[in-house]
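Lab notebook page, bench 4
Experiment: in silico fold of construct C2
Operator: M.H.
Input chain length: 352 residues
Purpose: comparison with the prior construct
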Amino acid sequence: MIQTKGYAAQNAHDTLAPWNFERREVGAHDIQIEILYCGVCHSDLAQINNEWFPGMFPMVPGHEIVGRVVKVGDHVKGFKTGDLAGVGTIVNSCGNCSHCEEGLEQYCKEGVVPTYNGIDKYGDFKPTFGGYSNTIVTKDAFAVHIPENLDLASTAPLLCAGITTYSPLKHWKIGAGHKVAVLGLGGLGHMAVKFAVALGAEVTILSTSPQKEADAKRLGAHHFVITKDAGQIEKVKGSFNFIIDTVAADHDFNFYLSLLDLDGVHICVGVPVEGIHLNGALGAFSLLGRRKSIVGSACGGIAETQEMLDFCAQHGIVADIELIDIKDIHSAYDRMLKGDIKYRFVIDMATL
């Protein structure tokens, strides 16, 4: 077994603290990665606090992992020692269902194995532990190559925030000629802006915060609409082809559906703790009137994640980050809840 250092919550709502544990030895189809940076996702805090479902403890969070390969299994052909590599939100799936065979492992019919807070039911049947640690062992098929020209720390959030917004943009073939609204300018929203602009769409930020306008324009957004301003809203009613909804709190779907044009699609990628509430009944004609849709999208599959990273390398796209020491993780969580970050925290794992 591989002796590993990490930061873990021993119980729900617990404070993260140093914890030593064991990783499995590198198998024939595994690679071992020395973790250099790990992004901080809102879902890390949600799972520590059992906000979605009962967690498995001790819990080592972290699923935005980048580092360097230090060992490869005998049958591994796609990676070699010294390669830069990353691991995102999943580390295994059944591999045999139609979704897995189509490269949609994230929608595995038998259920995926999350990078942490899960049991590897297709492998060693042991708990999975995440990237708030110095090393990880994973199947080579669930790792991705990190392009050399990308800043490594700023690349870490691409493994969740990046692919979660890139995947729906590609699935709905969003690009030139489309008018896209991004609802919420945070960790997910700032990546949605960067990708949609790079794909050629006309991008508008929908926000309740006027002070975010300058930053929206800096990120590449073409327009900024304050949703509390009736005059601004009136000008964009029925105008958007797509809304990328990154908000993790209750909001009025009837209101936002009114902003969509014919065949408009409202795409939910945020995960509200209380689930998705409609703030009252969803008006039938909010959907029927112009053949509109409300849909959801999870993270991407492994091949699509690699495609996203290569796209980022081509277009010079990374996340806007603040690098922190791991001892400051709870201060980062507090600031994250207040929206006091532009736009993603990343842990320097050398501080472990």
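Observations: The first helix runs from residue 42 to 48. The radius of gyration is 20 Å.
Next step: discuss at group meeting.
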